[in-house]
Design a protein that fits this description.
225 residues; 6 helices; single chain; six-stranded antiparallel β-sheet; 12% strand
Length: 225
């Protein structure tokens, strides 16, 4: 009876055009959309959202690892596939080192691909190191040798100028920064790719497990010639 039901499911999935018996529930699709939305917000804003996403991803890996060891059936197949897929993506950046958290120093092709994405979302900001207050570029002025100058007037490396500094319109000294920080952006991006790779391989492993668990149904006596 169980095999008949699974055969019917596989035939229905083939009619839908889903390969390898892949199945997607409404809950999965909603979870994917939610995760993608939070991931996009973390990539653009960094800060607390990025921290929450990183922590959630780490707990997700822990839960999946537990399922891989003590789970059964299709859940265990998914967990093993997830861990293998995530590890397959995550090991190269870990092996290369912290340089993969900087799109300008990246060596891996996928990290280099993220450079234009980084440029499209980053915003230069100026931060008061004493209070943490943030200011836009139109709220600060560049000073060199104590004189307000245009930013293009200070050549790279100083060029004879004293160390240039930025000040707000009310005289507060601030420092240049980025939002989100490039390290935050790259960490979140790599985690998103690792989770995506894990999910794809987890679904593939589940589909393979289900296909292997379906045994051909013996024809009934009335069906034989």
């Amino acid at each position: 009876m169980e095999n008949d039901r699974r055969h019917q499911e596989l035939r229905a999935l083939r009619r839908l055009g889903l390969p390898f018996g892949l199945q997607f529930s409404l809950f999965e699709l909603l979870a994917i959309l939610l995760f993608a939305g939070v991931g996009a917000a973390a990539l653009r804003g960094g800060g607390a959202v990025a921290l929450i996403l990183v922590q959630a991803a780490l707990w997700l890996f822990v839960v999946v690892a537990i399922l891989a060891f003590v789970g059964r059936g299709s859940w265990r197949a998914f967990a093993i596939g997830f861990l293998l897929g995530a590890a397959g993506y995550g090991i190269p950046p870990l092996y290369v080192g912290v340089g993969e958290l900087d799109p300008y120093e990246a060596k891996l092709p996928l990290t280099k691909v993220l450079l234009p994405v980084w440029h499209s979302v980053t915003t230069p900001i100026y931060v008061d190191p004493m209070t943490g207050d943030e200011f836009r570029s139109d709220q600060v002025q560049l000073f060199a040798n104590g004189v307000a100058v245009d930013a293009s007037a200070v050549p790279p490396g100083g060029g004879g100028f004293m160390a240039p500094e930025y000040r707000t319109l009310d005289g507060r000294v601030v420092r240049w920064s980025e939002k989100p920080l490039r390290e935050e952006f790259m960490l979140v991006a790599h985690l998103l790719f690792a989770v995506a790779a894990g999910y794809v391989f987890g679904k593939l492993a589940t589909a393979v497990y289900r296909r292997r668990s379906v045994r051909p149904r013996e024809p009934a006596a009335s069906e034989t010639i």
